[in-house]
């Protein structure tokens, strides 16, 4: 699995040029956001897809997950300073969250009792986001997204490289990355991934689209 990461603030000075690389749908979506960081996240997602997937995600699954017919499987996540895209030949889910103080009420809502006990044993902020991103990645990989209740399944032990949801196995991996936590899951596959941090020149190159300068 390949995970591409883009630090959104590095793309602030390239925003107008970056828009010219996006397809019409992604460009319109990006421009609709009110806040600059949201626009940058959307821009970076579009640039990563343009560069590494090469297809417009023109179709939406029944649970809202975008996909491109005939292209590789991919999953998008953005939070904090980064937008990331995971690419695999099997159904994949990825999630990123910045490390920060967690909300105990949220933990109670998404965790099973053994997960809560483990969370409070040590470094609860870190452990909460390890649990959260693992759940999100599996929810995305199975295709159900937030329709699947987060508390309906466990993502422990943390060292597990494979978890089961109903009768389906999911390879899973969780890492710390620049004060963020990233988890990725693959349906019926291994989640070993290579993470590459991309720069504006990687996604925009030195030449502009035809007719742009």
What is the structure about, briefly put?
With 213 residues, this protein is of the alpha+beta class. It has helices at residues 15-19, 24-32, 36-53, 104-110, 113-119, 124-141, 200-204; strands spanning 2-7, 59-60, 66-67, 73-79, 82-88, 92-98, 162-165, 168-177, 180-187, 194-198.
Written description of the protein model:
This protein has helices at 15-19, 24-32, 36-53, 104-110, 113-119, 124-141, 200-204; strands at 2-7, 59-60, 66-67, 73-79, 82-88, 92-98, 162-165, 168-177, 180-187, 194-198. It is α+β, with helices and mostly antiparallel strands. It has a single domain (2-204), classed as 4'-phosphopantetheinyl transferase domain (Ribosomal Protein L22, Chain A, Alpha-Beta Complex), CATH 3.90.470.20. A four-stranded mixed β-sheet has the order 4-5-1-10. The model is unreliable at 206-213 (pLDDT under 50).
The secondary-structure element order is: EHHHEEEEEHHHEEEEH
Reported for the largest beta sheet, the result is: 4 strands, mixed
Shape: globular
Q: Which stretches are low in confidence, meaning pLDDT under 50 for 5 or more residues running?
A: 206-213
- For the biggest β-sheet, the strand order reads 4-5-1-10
Measured as a percent range, the helix fraction is 25-40%
State the CATH topology: Ribosomal Protein L22, Chain A
- CATH-defined superfamily: 4'-phosphopantetheinyl transferase domain
What is the count of helical runs? Answer: 7
CATH architecture tag = Alpha-Beta Complex
What share of the residues does DSSP label as strand, in percent?
Answer: 25-35%
**Computed CA radius of gyration, to the nearest angstrom:** 18 Å
Structural class: alpha+beta
How many discrete structural domains? 1
Strand tally is 10
Terminal residue distance: 35 Å
If you average the pLDDT, what whole number results?
A: 91
CATH class wording: Alpha Beta
